[in-house]
Amino acid sequence: MKCIVGLGNPNKKYEHSRHNAGFLVLDRLAEELNCSWKNDKYLFSKIAKCSDNKQDVLLVKPQTYMNNSGQALSTVVAFYKIKTPDILIVHDDMDLPLGGFAYMQGGGTAGHNGIKSIYEHLGHKPLARLRIGIGRPETKLSDLASWVISPMDKDSLKAFNSILLELTDSILFWLQNSTEKSMNKYNVFKKGK
Length: 193
Description:
By secondary structure, the chain is of the alpha/beta class. It has helices spanning 21-32, 69-80, 113-122, 144-149, 154-162, 164-176, 179-186, and strands at residues 2-6, 38-40, 45-52, 55-62, 87-93, 101-105, 128-133. The chain has one domain (2-186): Rossmann fold.
């Protein structure tokens, strides 16, 4: 079973925030794979069980808020006995421009609290990651946290929505291939703005 985990915050006010890029991508992927979400309080997550070319796929949206994503993921991994190479973490990344995305294997947290929490709960394993560019604010903000959790403006949301199909296609490719092949194919595919 492959497990794709989208990171975000489970509150209506964060629905279209930059920090919820992982949730937004998984919602689109669930539509593509024709599966629906169920809230699993025991696993602290919204779960969608899907299949792709006869392969079982588990989509996970942790409901523990970003900073505690690892609590939910470690529970899901233990319950379903998922192996590290079968996990893909989908999350926002300020170091990539809006409209850009890149695959990576392992790596540091770059200050991302969701990734930090996952490493704390699962250990610093070489997890596959799909980093989705959200860019940085044009003006210097003293509090980047409030920028990432505030709703995207109309232009940013439009730019983000324009890459959703490419992102879901890339995940479907990852499901049938390796992270390395996904890096080779997609990391030069879209540079963003």
